[in-house]
Every structure is written in C-alpha cells, then in structure tokens.
C-alpha cells in the first residue's frame, strides 16, 4: 500500500514537471531560471528570455522523466531503472551547467 502512495506522489510530481516543461517550451508562465531570478528588474526587462525558457523546458522535461522512472521503479521493483535515473540525472546536471555557460558566453 505504501508503495502505491509513493508511486502516485512521484507520478504527480512528474506530471507537474511535464506541465511546466510544456509551458516553458511555449514560452509561457513564470520563468524559473537562476539567471532570470537573480537579474535586476531592469535586466529582466531587457533580457532575451528565449534561451532561458528553452533551458528550463529541457531541464523540467528531464526532471519529469526522472520522477516518472522512479514511480515506475517503485511499482515494478526492477533495480535497473535506478541506473537509468542516475544517468538521466547526471545528463540533466551537465546540460544545465553547460547551457548556462553557453548562454552567458553568447550574451557577452
């Protein structure tokens, strides 16, 4: 019973991440991106938000996949999905760092 509750919570978080990703691909909604959040109000108005929306969309898509695979792993109890989650998590972190550096270099 506890596994089902955990899996449902993981699926709900996954659905929220997929929804956020979909909205960011459409460049709609509040932008959850460090470059945007830490920018001053004047910089936000002049900022080209397109690359930040794309970066956030891809990161939330990968996060959604991570939570979806975790939910499936909880229900099916197959241990190999854990390694897929680790690989996707590593790819997510590397992508976030590399894309942030590229966005900053392109801006200058």
TrEMBL record:
Keywords associated with the record: Membrane, Transmembrane, Transmembrane helix
Residues that span the membrane, as ranges: 6-25, 57-74, 80-98
One Pfam family matching this protein: DUF3784
Name of the protein: Uncharacterized protein DUF3784
Gene source species: Murimonas intestini
